[in-house]
Amino acid sequence: MPFPLTLWLVHPDPAICEILLSRFDGLPGVSAQACRFENLPPHDCFVTAANSFGMMTAGIDAAVIAVHGEGLMKRIQSRILDEYLGEQPIGTALVVETELPDYPFIVHAPTMRVPGSIEGSDKVYAATFAALVAIYRHNVTSAKKIETVAFPAMGCGFGGVSHTEAGRQMAAAYRNYLEPPHRFDWDMVARRQKQICYDGNRQVVRG
Hints:
Residues 1-207 form the Macro domain. This protein is an alpha/beta fold. 40% of the residues lie in helices and 18% in strands. It has 6 helices and 8 strands, in the order βαββααββαβααββ. It has a 6-stranded mixed beta sheet, with helices on both faces. The model has no long low-confidence stretch (mean pLDDT 96).
């Protein structure tokens, strides 16, 4: 079973926080932090809406590096070189220690190979679910657990995804983290696919 988590949805605009939060309605342990990354209170882990090459020089990634230093980017890039042959696939995530005790972990979870539009895709879901799985696997093996996880609005910068759609895909990923299947059949696969690709009866992700 998954470990219980406290999720923070982070954006400096309170109205956007409310849009994101509305998509998580009914899911436990979710709240919003209407502030910039550098003003977040202590937390266990921040998830970056990253690219496949660990180039953390713009957007929320640049704010992360401004706080944690360029050494963090170099450690992430070294792991991408060693573990992913120089290109981290979308749908994978790395848990990286920061060396700051009040903010001990970063999860590097690419939403895109390189900066550009990901609108109309399921990449926000894939990156969010990958981050949650990486945190789960960390918590299985590590004595230092991750319990409080902060997420930005994944894919809403260079990715061009609307805040309501990003929130929907992120919430779908969190729901699937909380409710993993116990067996496989095509009905389960179809339900999950529809959950990811449709907003109500409207298709928003196209294969």
